[in-house]
Design brief:
By secondary structure, the protein is of the alpha/beta class. Helix content is about 45%, strand content about 10%. The protein contains ten helices and five strands, in the order βαααααβαβαβαβαα. The chain has helices at about 20-30, 40-45, 50-65, 70-85, 95-105, 120-125, 155-160, 175-185, 200-205, 215-220, and strands at about 5-10, 110-115, 135-140, 170-175, 190. It has a five-stranded parallel beta sheet with strand order 3-2-1-4-5, with helices on both faces. β4 (about 170-175), α8 (about 175-185) and β5 (about 190) form a beta-alpha-beta unit. It is globular and about 60 Å long.
Length: about 220
């Protein structure tokens, strides 16, 4: 296989096992205001920026007819302390440190293309020095980022900062929003879906995707 011009990595649920922790934080926050979230709703929040997620959860709370409807600041005031306490515990996804080290050894340029804010990435990444190998980063609150996932902007900006064409990049994603963003940017997309999804669910959630990874170790042998 042709070596990519660069590898563009999502963070949450792709390099770090944070998605169950994010889901728990959103679940507790929504439940605090009387509207527990369903599994499919929690999946729909994956890969999106914090404020975009908050606005979606607020919409669900409003539609439920909950007695007290919070604003975004009130919802995040409940959610953020829960998330911060949980996220520092996030472990690497299987194969993630190995893949990042392998790219570095081969000289394959890398960038982080994440919906998480710069401060949130610093919090989650602090126990994982191997993530420092990815020096180029586009965060969800990057001043040059106009739109969050599922828009392609984060991948387009990451490729631009690496001085490569998006269609020559491999993008690694786990969320429906992220897969849509990477595909729209023209990247060759590697999808790491949640392990609990069966084949039919994957086809429904990630329409048009043909390549799925079991772990990130699957890619290492392709990068030589």
């Amino acid at each position: 296989m042709v070596r990519p011009a660069a590898c563009l990595f999502d963070l949450d649920g792709l390099l770090l096992d944070t998605e169950p922790l994010h889901a728990e934080a959103w679940q507790q926050a929504a439940s605090h205001f009387g509207r527990p979230l369903q599994d499919e709703e929690l999946l729909a929040l994956r890969g999106r920026r914090r404020h975009d997620c908050a606005d979606q959860v607020l919409q669900w709370i409003n539609l439920s007819g909950a007695e007290h409807t919070p604003n975004r600041e009130q919802l995040l005031a409940v959610r953020q302390p829960i998330a911060e306490a949980l996220l520092v515990q996030a472990a690497p996804m299987p194969g993630a440190p190995e893949l990042v080290h392998h790219c570095a050894e081969l000289g394959v340029p890398m960038a982080l293309a994440t919906s998480s804010s710069k401060a949130a990435v610093a919090l989650k990444a602090s126990p994982h020095p191997w993530l420092e190998l990815i020096a180029v980063r586009v965060h969800g609150d990057d001043p040059q980022l106009n739109r969050g996932k599922p828009a392609p902007d984060v991948f387009l900006l990451a490729a631009k900062r690496l001085s490569v064409e998006p269609n020559q990049c491999w993008a690694f994603e786990d969320s429906p929003a992220g897969v849509q963003a990477a595909s729209s940017a023209g990247c060759h997309v590697h999808v790491l879906p949640p392990a609990h999804l069966n084949a039919e669910q994957r086809r429904t959630i990630y329409p048009g995707v043909e390549q799925y990874l079991t772990t990130l170790c699957d890619v290492i042998e392709q990068l030589y």
